[in-house]
Write a structure and sequence with these properties.
The structure is a homodimer of 281-residue chains.
Chain A: E1 5-9, H1 13-25, E2 30-34, H2 38-46, E3 52-53, H3 56-62, E4 65-68, H4 72-83, E5 91-94, H5 100-106, E6 115-117, E7 119-121, E8 142-145, H6 153-165, E9 169-172, H7 175-198, H8 210-215, H9 223-232, H10 234-256, H11 260-278
Parallel strand pairs in A: 1-2, 1-4, 2-3, 4-5, 5-6, 8-9
Antiparallel strand pairs in A: 7-8
Helix pairs in contact in A: 4-5, 7-10, 10-11
Chain lengths: 281, 281
């Protein structure tokens, strides 16, 4: 690993943090950065997130490992294009928040000897841009990898080792299972935060406190990033939304019928789950 | 103000923080603490949140200003009981998260010369107990006071001055207007956080990250505190929930119809509102 050349395609918050972390821990001997935005490349260079700014073809030809960091609707085509410029044996992975569509779209389109391993680090921020990158972003965080039954074990093991070197925990999941899980744990919270923020009239801005602000923090995420994510996972997201609506209905019933025992039980269930999460890494 | 004796009835997170802040800034010369839980009183004394632990009658007789800090379903009766033991001229206020029911329940039940001014500091935490109290809890925070047309201006001015001395901003609102506002900015976020946490099956706990945790933080609040709040404000809360459901419907439509322009516009609205809140105190 230590002798490898890493190419990061897309040097925003995630890509920049990967570069910083890989350089700090020696998970890559050299980090090449690719981005269509020259300002992002300059910023990534200045921050020490990459050793060199390259064009896509040069980076692909030099890399042992390529990590594609882009909005989910652009990832599959980028993976295929980059892979076609790579040497045989190079492994390509990504950081997209949805996986089934990307894995399916890449399949059968890679040149011989090239392997793609879908990946998703559960880390990030409502911020974006390399200026918010930090080398500890993945420490203790979960990275889900979604190899298929046809993915060589050596390749998924290599990507696992890379993330573990960056301090992350790694879990393998089937891509569809990943998407169903994230619909509930990430995409639904985003939708809810956005819907809740969207109901607030301007005259009530002053009457908000930390509760409203924490609950809606995710709404600050960039629509250019989140529209493709919610779209790509719309089926699982609609299922998750239906689950939530059923729970909201139980609250509505309890409130409308002045059923304090049920109201208390619903609040207690939420507290029990949330308190268990607080004790986790 | 500096010569006054303050009685804090209920020395939990909020009451303890009021005592700490009032002692630090000199808003009260002496702070008396009342609580039915001897451990809370001991803890408040040890932390310097109160000068003395008293029984209710002693504290009421000595106080110029009484702040009742209790679950909302207990506040009105406590206010009346305490007021009956106060000297004429004493002002009683509270910190309950709902106001219309309390103001109505107190009205006409106070002895002559006693004034109640409803209050609600928009500050707090999902934690509870005096051990989480801090003297800066109200710095820069909004406190809503809900005097009625019959409240003497001198009394509401005195309570306003007290909170301002603790570093808070003060706004006067009609009690029903307060409740409708807070239904949307506080009680609905709490309900949503709880409902979202309640939909999470245990096998997905590991697949949560900061997004899920921030969105559900409020769910850790104590049901004994929140059941009475949601109940007391159930009519306004059901209206707020209907507003949110309408926004969720718009998301559902956009997802089901693959209407990217609408999906993007909904996310952009949420971002615009949330980003404006981030710039506020």
């Amino acid at each position: 690993m230590a002798a490898s050349t890493l190419a990061v395609v897309g040097v925003g918050l995630i890509g920049g943090s990967i570069g910083l972390a890989a350089r700090r821990c020696g998970a890559a001997a050299r980090v090449l950065g690719v981005d269509r935005d020259p300002a992002a490349l300059e910023s990534a260079l200045a921050l020490g997130a990459i050793d060199e700014a390259c064009d896509e073809l040069t980076a692909a030809a030099a890399a042992d490992l390529v990590v594609v960091c882009a909005p989910v609707d652009l990832i599959a085509d980028l993976v295929v294009r980059v892979a076609c410029a790579c040497r045989a044996g190079t492994i390509v992975t990504d950081v997209g928040s949805t996986k089934a569509g990307i894995v399916a779209a890449v399949r059968g389109r890679l040149p011989p000897g090239l392997v793609f391993v879908g990946g998703h680090p559960l880390a990030g921020s409502e911020k974006h841009g390399p200026e918010h990158a930090r080398d500890g972003l993945f420490a203790g965080r979960l990275v889900v990898l979604t190899p298929t039954p046809w993915t060589p074990e050596a390749a998924s093991g290599r990507v696992r080792d890379f993330w573990q070197a960056l301090g992350a925990r790694v879990r393998f999941m089937e891509a569809g299972e990943h998407d169903r899980a994230l619909a509930l744990t990430s995409h639904l919270p985003h939708l809810l935060a956005s819907a809740l923020a969207g109901t607030l009239p301007p005259d009530l801005y002053e009457v908000t406190a930390t509760g409203f602000r924490d609950t809606t923090r995710l709404a600050s995420g960039h629509p250019a990033v989140w529209t493709p994510i919610l779209r790509a996972n719309h089926a699982a997201l609609l299922d998750a939304l239906a689950l939530l609506e059923a729970q909201l209905d139980r609250f509505r019933q309890a409130l409308a019928c002045d059923d304090l025992a049920s109201l208390n039980a619903l609040l207690q269930l939420g507290k029990t789950v949330r308190d268990r999460l607080a004790g986790r890494g």
